[in-house]
Amino acid sequence: MIKGIKSYWSNKSIWQILFETSTYLFVATLPLWDKLNTLVLWLFVASSIFLLKPRERLENIKQNKTAFMGLFALYLLFIIGWLLSTETKDALRDMERTLTLVIIPLILLSHKREDFNLKKMYVAFGVGLFTAMVICWAVIIESILTNATPWVQAGYFFKWVYNGWNAVAPLEGHPSYFAVMLVIFIVGLIRMPAFKNVRKNKFKFILLLAPFFLFLIETSSRIGVICLVVIAVVTIFKKLEIKRIFYVIGLLIALAILSLKFDYLGSKMSQIVDSKGNITLDRYDRWGAILTDFKVRESWIFGIGTGDSQELYNIAYSKNGFMVALKNEYNAHSQYLEFLISNGMLGLLVYLGVLFIFFKKTRLKGEALSLFIIIVLFSGSETIFGISKGVFIFAFFYALFILLYSKRAVNV
User: Fold this and answer.
1) Residue 273's beta-bridge partner residues?
2) What mean pLDDT, rounded, does the chain reach?
3) CB 403 within 8 A of CB 108
4) Tell me, what's the pLDDT at 368?
5) Is the pLDDT confidence value at 245 over 90?
6) How far apart, in whole angstroms, are the C-alpha atoms of residue 143 and residue 133?
7) Can you give the residue ranges of every domain in the chain?
8) What is the pTM of this model?
9) Distance, CA of 114 to CA of 116 (rounded, Å)
10) Alpha-carbon span 139 to 169, nearest angstrom
């Protein structure tokens, strides 16, 4: 082991070692606090700058210029949205938050695919997720033990008191974004050839997955659970095998049982469609109200600007009696709708174009398939770029999988 460490240090420059270390640290801190993750991001950027020569960086970017230009066009939407806004403060904040849509891909796509080890990155990601989960569970356990009647309080572990937003409160995060990261990791363990040996012992593998799966349920994220199920079903249809079908059936049974136990998730799932097949999702009516008010503005081509979109949402909520949404100033809860309102058809088409570039470049090989499904579904339920964590997840994995899976196939 010592010889291996000495060999590693002697065969790599200090900047190569720092770049690899900062890459794994960035992935590991993605599930943790934004400030910590941002700090590591700049270490990741700095190490890359010192590692590569400008000419080499430029040559590498040229290999994936279509993907980079697509992401750059996506960021330009926020600049255009600022120019069209009367409320420039919010628009400037959006521009600042989404700047990493350019910075992260610029770093990743300026490297060669050999500079990244996907298996080690997933291991680091898993360590970060598990660390985050332990922190959250520690806070929950402390809350139970310090209660006047801990034996009674323990029963609330499966209730909303310790689920959803409350589950990730110590991380100051959003449950759906944490759920999406869990899904990315879980399906990676299940699907990636690099983890084939890990999957050989089924009992140990189930024990490995169990805490991540449990916390996914604790987040009470409908979109997280839906993404996991859809990926599982699509994987089956790509290669029909009896054992895969049984695995998915087992997954659905486990989800059904846990949804009954964690009744907060169960109640949220039951609010999507009623027994008659009618859509009862609360966001559905809000989307309709927003579109109704947007029609009056007649800004279909360029939208009303990123800084003025929240005002339109608030007006729509007020008119239609969505008091909770108005009080908490909910965004559109749909990235597609968000771009349509803020940037018009231009913005929506650019975003769809960026997704199409990913589809065409990666051919949805390997984990690109999982990420594509997650982005497409998540964009319908959440405003991905509404918080920094969403921008980081999108920019990093989008650019990484473009680099790894475009052109020739690679075994990662």
Assistant:
1) 279
2) 88
3) yes
4) 95
5) no
6) 15
7) 13-110+117-278+331-405
8) 0.91
9) 5
10) 9
Sign of CA dihedral 249, 251, 253, 255: negative
> For 4-19, what is the mean pLDDT?
71
Reference 290, options 337, 243, 327, 246; nearest CA is: 337
Residues belonging to the chain = 412
Nearest to 261 by CA among 178, 163, 338: 163
- Crossing angle, helix 222-238 and helix 202-218, to 10 degrees? 140
| CA gap 331, 316 in Å, rounded | 11
Of 204, 255, 203, residue with least CA distance to 228: 255
**CA nearest to 408, candidates 361, 372, 370:** 361
Is residue 197 classed as helix, strand or coil in its secondary structure? coil
Which range, of 142-151, 168-177, 312-321, 391-400, averages the lowest pLDDT? 142-151
Per-residue pLDDT reduced to its tens digit, 358-403: 999 999 999 999 999 999 999 999 999 999 999 999 999 999 999 9
For 108, other C-beta atoms within 10 Å of its C-beta total 29
**Residue 308: what residue type?**
D
Q: Which residue has the tokens 């029909």?
A: 240
Token pair 């469609």 in the structure block, residue: 273
Contact 171, 129 (CB under 8 A): no
SS3 at position 118:
helix
Phi-psi region of 117 (alpha: psi -120 to 50; beta: other; left: phi over 0): beta
Q: Tell me: the pLDDT tens digits for 293-319? A: 999 988 899 999 999 999 999 999 999
